[in-house]
Recover the amino acids of this structure.
């Protein structure tokens, strides 16, 4: 299976990504494709999308650019693609994108999200506790 990434930087409309949202979420009962797409445009984050050769969105996440770190948020793998290490593939490419940065990369998750914790530990090692959350650090 071939994979590729599509990124959306800081409120920049992308026709290809918009078409993918319309294709992938046309049967969503809760949110229209336009609503989902406009939601990512309203964030000041960088969005990364993992897409397969049939233009299906497999996974996505956002990266907030802060003064002293990058923070990975909203890591999501579409249900039908879970269990195939796509979150790891997505996150490896995010880490690669910021590889030359001297800033720390952080990822937070709640301590009861066991599947996510197991996935993140493969890349980041053991987390540190931060209130009711766990924080994973890279760099």
């Amino acid at each position: 299976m071939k994979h590729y990434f599509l990124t959306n930087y800081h409120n920049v409309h992308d026709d290809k990504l918009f078409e993918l949202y319309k294709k992938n979420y046309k049967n969503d009962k809760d949110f229209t494709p336009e609503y989902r797409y406009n939601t990512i445009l309203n964030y000041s984050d960088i969005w990364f999308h993992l897409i397969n050769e049939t233009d299906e969105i497999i996974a996505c996440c956002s990266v907030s650019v802060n003064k002293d770190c990058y923070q990975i948020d909203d890591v999501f793998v579409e249900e039908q693609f879970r269990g195939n290490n796509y979150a790891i593939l997505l996150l490896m490419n995010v880490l690669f994108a910021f590889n030359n940065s001297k800033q720390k990369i952080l990822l937070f998750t709640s301590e009861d999200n066991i599947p996510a914790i197991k996935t993140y530990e493969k890349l980041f090692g053991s987390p540190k506790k931060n209130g009711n959350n766990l924080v994973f650090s890279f760099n």
Observations:
- The chain has one domain: 3-138.
- The radius of gyration is 15 Å.
- The longest helix spans residues 86-97.
- The chain is about 30% helix and 35% strand.
